[in-house]
Design a protein that fits this description.
The complex is a heterodimer of chains A (about 325) and B (about 260). Chain A is of the alpha/beta class. Chain A is built from 7 helices and 18 strands. Classes of the chains: A alpha/beta (about 325), B alpha/beta (about 260). Chains A and B meet through helix 2, helix 3, strand 7, strand 9 and strand 10 of A and helix 3, helix 4, strand 9, strand 10 and strand 11 of B. Strand 13 (about 185-190) of chain A pairs antiparallel with strand 11 of chain B, so a sheet runs across the interface.
Chain lengths: ~325, ~260
């Protein structure tokens, strides 16, 4: 029995979420008496050296149709390999890619699937997995039981620990899979975005209080000073100032960064459901009674257009 | 052409949620609606039907007693017929069992296109659409924002972290609807009246060839983490900003 983590590359390394998952897999694996297995697919196998110390075993899946990410062929390679080993738990990063691979793998292996996972522990002889339900109004902790389970884990849920496993066994498996049934004809890469919004350690988010599209640059300036990403509220997307892909909240993305700075957002449930698990929240609003302050650790009453550049300036000053 | 739409009934976003029985139970206010993303999926099916001239659209939902409201809404919007998979074994069932049920039914009824919402607004998992596709062994495009069907070929647009993708696939195909694909229509009063009176046919899991396996069991419910009361930082913008930066660096050490 083992815990498998499906690794996800980000540039020339694996994503921080990958290392979070491996860290937690080692921790609960030690308690459960299970080994940690890291799986890398296609061209990303070239990065396998980065996983030294991170897992007991590193499995590289290679094959003619496994180059850059393709959901169909990658999922087939993954579930084909899993169907021989039947890992007790398969962990995926909660990313666009994780959300494409996990359902296909779970369906083919007839595994249970839990998504938006915020906690994974070993208790009373089984894995316990926590995730928000009812749009984040409550958290449910599940017992995974004896059956296999796929868990798709929200970024920034676990701390990253140094990998100290002495001798990882690196194994290359040649898999012969068909090309995926969906072909990408064209990809217009996103401009400007370096880190996916959901994986950023710092998110600076603006709402209606930004007043005009041109003022969104104030969010970008602060995000840049903090090495973070920019998000927006639904009002900003509906006004046509920003792309839906940047939307935080119910009909957009759920983020959980270490620091969430939110300016000019009133704090409607549609928004707060998408950011409530952020560690430290700073809210800026002209209305001292705005609901958003109930979801914040620090509050500043003031105009976003004055306060945001003041924070950027203060950060750059020293 | 046959179009299946997978729909889920969810608690209204504003519905009151209470944790009871010492964390062992969840009591939900009975305000239930068709999942927002599934409304978009229903609208997309109606649009496809309109553009190709003729198609049969049926909506399906699975639950132990839940799902009928969602199906009535789909009927009111204009789908041709609905089927409800009703079975006690669907109580607390996870995406695998729900997907097996839906895939079993859709296989029985026939399909060229399967539409589903990108995710539900309660669980936000987005598993069922792609899991049904995997069980049926058909192509799946998740988070579709635009679609063109030419005979057996489809071209779809989707937004991902990588960028805007234009993808191609052949029928049969499963497509999950993202916000921005279509604005769901508001049903007319006549449609609502008709849907209210409509008979919703029911089938059991056994009738769609599914033997339910156990899903992970809930051990307990908790409230979201409670934050300490907000600490307001006073002063003019520049002064408050400096103090904030100091607090973030020295007190909570997040930067």
């Amino acid at each position: 029995m083992a815990i498998w983590t499906v690794c996800e590359a980000r540039g020339d390394d694996f994503s921080p979420t990958t290392y979070e998952l491996l860290s937690q897999a080692r921790k609960v694996g030690a308690e459960a008496g299970m080994e940690t297995v890291a799986v890398v697919v296609g061209a990303e196998a070239e990065l396998a050296d980065k996983l030294t110390g991170q897992a007991h075993q590193v499995i590289c899946l290679k094959g003619g149709n496994l180059g850059i990410f393709d959901a169909g062929s990658w999922a087939e390679a993954l579930y084909g390999t899993c169907a021989e080993a039947y890992p007790r738990l398969i962990l995926f990063c909660d990313s666009d890619r994780g959300r494409e691979l996990a359902p296909a793998v779970a369906a083919n292996l007839k595994y249970a699937a839990l998504v938006n996972v915020t906690s994974l522990e070993w208790e009373d002889g089984q894995f316990t997995i926590t995730r928000p339900v009812c749009g984040g109004k409550a958290y449910a902790t599940y017992g995974a039981g004896e059956r296999g389970c796929v868990a798709v884990v929200r970024p920034n849920s676990f701390s990253i620990e140094p990998g100290e496993i002495a001798s990882a066994q690196v194994q290359t498996v040649e898999v012969d899979v068909a090309p995926g049934k969906v072909s990408v004809e064209e990809l217009k890469p996103r401009e400007g975005r370096k880190i996916p919004l959901t994986e950023a350690q710092v998110v600076v988010c603006g709402g209606r209080g930004m007043k005009a599209e041109k003022n969104l640059s104030l969010l970008e300036d602060l995000a840049e000073a903090l090495g973070g990403a920019v998000g927006v509220s639904r009002a900003v997307v509906d006004a046509g100032w920003a792309d839906h892909n940047d939307q935080v909240g119910k009909s957009g993305k759920t983020v959980s960064p270490g620091l969430y700075i939110v300016a000019g957002v009133s704090g409607a449930v549609h928004h707060t459901m998408g950011m409530d698990t952020s560690k430290v929240v700073v809210a800026i609003n002209t209305d001292a009674n705005a609901t958003i302050f109930r979801f914040a650790d620090y509050g500043i009453v003031g105009d976003a257009l004055e306060v945001l550049p003041a924070i950027t300036k203060a950060l750059r000053a020293n | 052409m046959k179009i299946a739409v997978l729909v889920k009934e969810v608690p209204d976003l504003e519905a009151h949620v209470e944790i009871a029985a010492g964390g062992k139970a969840l009591i939900l206010e009975k305000k239930r609606v068709l999942n927002y993303y599934d409304e978009i999926a229903v609208e997309a099916a109606l649009q496809v039907k309109q553009s190709i001239g003729s198609a049969e659209i049926y909506a399906v939902s699975a639950g132990n007693g839940t799902g009928i409201e969602a199906l009535r809404r789909a009927l009111a919007m204009g789908v041709d017929r609905v089927i409800h998979i009703n079975d006690p074994a669907l109580e607390g069932a996870g995406p695998l069992v729900v997907s097996q049920a839906l895939a079993g039914l859709v296989k029985r009824e026939g399909f060229d296109v399967v539409f589903a919402g990108k995710k539900s607004t309660d669980d936000e998992a987005g598993m069922v659409g792609p899991m049904v596709a995997a069980l049926l062994g058909i192509a799946c495009v998740q988070g579709v924002t635009a679609l063109r069907i030419d005979g057996k070929d489809i071209t779809a647009k989707r937004e991902t972290e990588r960028g805007t993708e234009t993808v191609k696939a052949s029928l049969p195909v499963a497509l999950t609807a993202e916000k921005g694909f279509y604005t769901p229509r508001v049903p007319q009063v006549m449609g609502i009246m008709k849907a209210m009176k409509a008979e919703v046919p029911k089938v059991s899991l056994a009738e769609v060839g599914v033997e339910a396996v156990s899903s992970p069991q809930v051990r307990g419910y908790n409230r979201p983490k409670v934050r300490l009361p907000v600490k307001m930082i006073e002063g003019a913008a520049s002064q408050a900003a400096s103090e904030l930066v100091r607090l973030l660096r020295e007190d909570v050490k997040v930067i």
